[in-house]
Amino acid sequence: MSVQLPPPTNRKRALPQGELEASSTLKLGADQNTHTLSLSEARLVIHKVLENKRRGGNKYEEPENLTKTLDYLDVFARFKDEENIKAVERLLNSHTELEMFERSQLGSLCCDNAEEAKSLIPSLQNKISDGDLQELLDELTKLRNFTE
């Protein structure tokens, strides 16, 4: 006796154009030059938007997935103070040899040393020397210490 299954109810997912990969070579397709945010920047943006919605006078109830996203960002965002977040963004943006994706990853991961950073973000391998990367990471650490 065989059981007949109903047809699937999900939509077919569009296949990505080309190969997407964030390894030793960044291949991000259409998103290659898209501005990306660190977790700290995303946290700041969402809090500002919600603050404006609440100030608008209309009753606004946050969807559950937004509340969960904010909870996640509150835990994992490395920088909490707006001034430090802006300083981190300026510091990372001064490294124009790095892709936007790599900068946001550095701002989110806050690696201790160049070896760890290059291990977690392999595309940094031939873009920045270990010494320059370590100097950048040390500057990020200084900014982070003021926020925790």
TrEMBL record:
Sequence ranges assigned to domain RNA polymerase Rpb4/RPC9 core in this UniProt record: 29-147
Principal place of residence: nucleus
Compartments it resides in: Nucleus
InterPro entries: HRDC-like_sf, RNA_pol_Rpb4/RPC9_core, Rpb4-like, Rpb4/RPC9, Rpb4/RPC9_sf
Keywords: Nucleus
Residue span of region Disordered: 1-27
GO biological process: DNA-templated transcription initiation
MF (Gene Ontology): nucleotide binding
A GO cellular component entry from the record: RNA polymerase complex
Stated family: Belongs to the eukaryotic RPB4 RNA polymerase subunit family.
PANTHER family, alphabetized: DNA-DIRECTED RNA POLYMERASE II
Protein name (record): RNA polymerase Rpb4/RPC9 core domain-containing protein
Organism: Penicillium vulpinum
